[in-house]
Recover the amino acids of this structure.
C-alpha cells in the first residue's frame, strides 16, 4: 500500500493504527489529519481467511497423491514376513510324533 509507505517513511505526516476488539480487527491510516484508509474484518472471517485456503490445498494434495507408488515394495516385504513366519513354525530335522499330542496341541485343545 503506497499510502502506508508514505505515512511511515521519515518526514511523513500521519499514522497507521490497528486494533482488535469485539467487532474484530480494525485498522486505519490517517495522513495529515484525514483518514485515508479504514477497514475492519470480523474475527471469524479473519480466521477462515487464514486457515481455510491452506487446509483446502492440503486436502487437494492429499487426495491427489498416488497411494500405489510404494505398494510393490510393501507387498514384497509382507510376503517375506509371511514366509519367515511360516518357516519358523517347524524346526528342520525334527519329526513330529502323532502317537502323543504335543504340548502345543494340548494348549490349543484346552
Amino acid at each position: 500500500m503506497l499510502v502506508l509507505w508514505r505515512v511511515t517513511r521519515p518526514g511523513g505526516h500521519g499514522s497507521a493504527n490497528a486494533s482488535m476488539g469485539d467487532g474484530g480487527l480494525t485498522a486505519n491510516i490517517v495522513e495529515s489529519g484525514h483518514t485515508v484508509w479504514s477497514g475492519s474484518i470480523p474475527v471469524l472471517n479473519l480466521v477462515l481467511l487464514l486457515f481455510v485456503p491452506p487446509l483446502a490445498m492440503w486436502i487437494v494434495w492429499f487426495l491427489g497423491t498416488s497411494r500405489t507408488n510404494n505398494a510393490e515394495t510393501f507387498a514384497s516385504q509382507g510376503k517375506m514376513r509371511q514366509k519367515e513366519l511360516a518357516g519358523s513354525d517347524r524346526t528342520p530335522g525334527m519329526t513330529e510324533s502323532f502317537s502323543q499330542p504335543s504340548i502345543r496341541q494340548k494348549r490349543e485343545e484346552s
Summary: The radius of gyration is 36 Å. The helical segments are 2-8, 43-64, 71-87, 103-109. The first strand starts at residue 14 and ends at 21.
